[in-house]
Design goal:
4-stranded antiparallel sheet, globular, alpha/beta, 9 helices, Rossmann fold
Length: 307
């Protein structure tokens, strides 16, 4: 793998942290240095950090992220808000069995299981699957689990489903046309004759127009997660900066993965190419109309069609 290093463009992060958290930081020598001190009510820390482009493979990215994933995404608080949305989809498409592709720590798998759906959860990260198993045990719900990437799904799973859910922006980890097409073909092969594919990714038509760097900030107790983008030609580097304050000092990690921003028209083209029919697009899982300039998400629902 080719390794390319780039200096972290810190100004927008610096201004945001100071404005919101009274935290400031300064770049210094071209080497990895980190420290912190308090002064005038402001926590000041200085760093110079090198971020690697195409540096983290998807296995490592999610294995590292797994321990913090539920805190970062508000796992426990999402059930009441999102369960009715998933229930509407389950009822509308008469879903009794489902594959949750890119399940992570299992939020959507567990929502489906709680609704009485027989669920198989698959993820590329064994650490994520281990967290899913812990969550399902705590909630006393049954979910089958598989560790696999999307391109080898049909080797790992022998049965078919009423629905394949691929939510949480998982599809944009597929960086080549070949990987995307193979994955969509695998999803189709795993559907029952009247089965549906339900994909949720971010609205990259909007993101690539606005080119905002800061995507999300989540603070929980002494830890702050900042998700931000670096725009690199036809790719996006997705970064998660984790800041943890301990005894007046700041500990930090940066986890980065390359994404392929898939636009609406491109996704529809690939779905049609591999044989899906009745392709519909929405702006959310609530099935609101899609608007390329305003919708935060792109939700695509397609039927398997005849093999």
């Amino acid at each position: 793998m080719q390794v390319a290093w780039q200096l972290f463009n810190y100004w927008s992060i610096r201004n945001l942290l100071y404005r919101n958290f009274k935290v400031d930081f300064f770049p210094i020598k071209a080497q990895n240095i980190f420290g912190a001190r308090r002064g005038g009510g402001v926590l000041v820390f200085w760093w110079h950090i090198l971020i690697m482009s195409n540096h983290t493979d998807i296995f490592s990215f999610y294995d590292v992220l797994a321990p913090d994933y539920d805190s970062m995404t508000g796992f426990k608080n999402r059930f009441e808000r999102e369960a009715p949305v998933i229930k509407k989809i389950v009822e509308q498409y008469s879903i009794q069995t489902a594959l949750d592709a890119g399940a992570g720590t299992g939020f959507h798998s567990l929502v489906l299981a709680k609704l009485g759906v027989q669920v198989t959860a698959v993820d590329i990260s064994e650490e994520m699957i281990d967290r899913l198993k812990e969550n399902s045990k705590q909630l006393r719900l049954s979910v089958d689990t598989v560790v696999s990437d999307f391109e080898r799904l049909t080797d790992a799973i022998a049965k078919t489903f009423d629905a394949v859910f691929c939510l949480g922006n998982s599809l944009v980890h597929l960086l080549t046309d070949e990987a995307l097409q193979k994955t969509l073909m695998n999803f189709r092969s795993l559907l029952n004759p009247k089965g549906v594919l339900i994909i949720q990714i971010l609205n990259y038509d909007k993101i690539l127009t606005e080119r905002k760097r800061i995507q999300n900030i989540k603070k929980k107790e002494d830890t702050t997660f900042i998700r931000f983008y670096d725009y690199c030609n036809d790719r996006i580097n997705f970064n998660i900066l984790k800041l943890t304050e301990k005894e007046g000092a700041i500990e930090h990690t940066v986890n980065t993965i390359e994404l392929r921003p898939i636009r609406k028209d491109e996704l529809e083209k690939f779905l049609g190419r591999v044989g899906y029919i009745s392709i519909e697009t929405y702006g959310s899982l609530q099935l609101e109309p899609f608007n390329k300039h305003r919708s935060s998400n792109l939700v695509t629902i397609a039927k398997r069609g005849k093999l």
